[in-house]
Amino acid sequence: MRVLVTGGIGHVAKTTIARLLQAGWEVRSIDLADTTDIAGIEYTRCDILDYPALVEQANGCDAVVHLAALRSPITHIGPRVFEINAAGTYNVFEAAAVNGIKRVVQASSINALGAYFSTGHMQIQYLPMDEDHPSYTTDPYSFSKQIIEEIGRYYWRREGISSAALRFPGVYKSDAFTSGPFQEKLERMRKLIDELAALPDADRTARMKDVEQRILAYRSERPLEYRGDKEPVTRPATADDLLFSMYMSNRFDLWTMIDERDVAQAIDKSLTSTYKGSHPLFINGANNVIGYDSQTLIKLFYPDVTQFHAPLNGSTSLVSIEKARQLIGYEPEYETVS
After folding, report:
1. Which of 42, 271, 273, 296 is deepest in the core (most CB within 10 A)?
2. pLDDT, tens digit, for every residue of 143-179?
3. b/e per residue 266-298 (b: at least 16 CB within 10 A)
4. For residues 8 and 38, is the Cβ–Cβ distance under 8 A?
């Protein structure tokens, strides 16, 4: 069995390809570099926006793993982000259809809901977040990820291509979570949350409201989007820098991260599991990134959420992976905390 892997030179692709080779797949890989240092594969330079070349590369393959994309709205203007991510994905699915390929696994993102790059708050209706939750995208990258999932559904209706759109949070290399600096930062974050939780209600509410207002004012300037010749948006000075960082990143990504090896696991299982249709799947850890009591995180960072669709005991992730467990047998093997 041969699989075409787009975006084949990134660290996620390298880890994924290693797993697929071990599982017995023949791998054909494409990317924009002239060569690759990955052994045991067939590699060709190919742009996913070059549709005829993409059709040629998909010829003879049994499945596609689509990883080629711009990974944020920071480095390119919105139209270019949308073109590469959305039009490129359309080309991948069309090339699969022309070649009779019936299985595509693509990298979506937690941002398909509207998360880290948002210009304002996501409208969180309930927790834990699951695949039925509506999207609220406000930046070009997140919107492109929302659209690629629609492309997958379109090709299921039109061509009978079964696909999984894997909604990854921030993906980290295998040694990142065990590093001293990372673990030290987690400990500082836990200590700060302990302090916040111990405050009188009125003091805690005021402090959290203050950081929320500063974050929303900062985000309204679109600091995480391409600015061309404009000066970067200056992050506001704050004596509460760690809380600002936690609110800016962890709060908007719902305290999720993932090890690249669990990404590879999810891709491998999405290729071989016996599902039909097109499915978005959250792929993240079973626990929140800092191993903290989830109800406390909700009280501090999501006080307006009042609907809960499943129990959130202990440090259970605020983003549910139950659908991935049921559909492809995914189970995280590498957590940020033990």
Report:
1. 271
2. 999 999 999 999 999 999 999 999 999 999 988 888 8
3. bbbbbbeeeeeebbbbbbbbebbbbbbbbeebb
4. yes
Tell me which of 231 and 276 has the higher pLDDT. Answer: 276
Residues 6 or more apart from 317 whose CB is under 8 A from it? 128, 254, 255, 256, 284, 285, 286, 287, 288, 294
Tokens 């960072």 found at: 301
Tally of residues, the chain: 338
Q: What is the pLDDT of residues 271-323, one digit of tens each?
A: 999 999 999 999 999 999 999 999 999 999 999 999 999 999 999 999 999 99
Beta bridge partners of 162: 103
Do residues 143 and 79 lie in contact, with contact meaning Cβ atoms separated by under 8 Å? no
- Determine contact, residues 121/251, Cβ cutoff 8 Å: no
**What 3-state class would DSSP assign to 299?**
helix
Distance (Å) of CA 109 to CA 115, 141, 145: 9, 10, 7
The rounded percent of the chain whose pLDDT value lies above 70 is 100
What is the distance between the terminal CA atoms of the chain, rounded to a whole angstrom? 36
Token pair, residue 26, equals 């023949």
Q: 330 and 279 in contact (C-beta within 8 Å)?
A: no
- The SS3 call for residue 15 is helix
Structural domains of the chain, with CATH: 2-174+256-328 (3.40.50.720)
Backbone angles phi, psi at 29, to 5 degrees: -120, 140
Query: Sign (positive/negative) of CA torsion 130, 135, 140, 146?
Result: positive
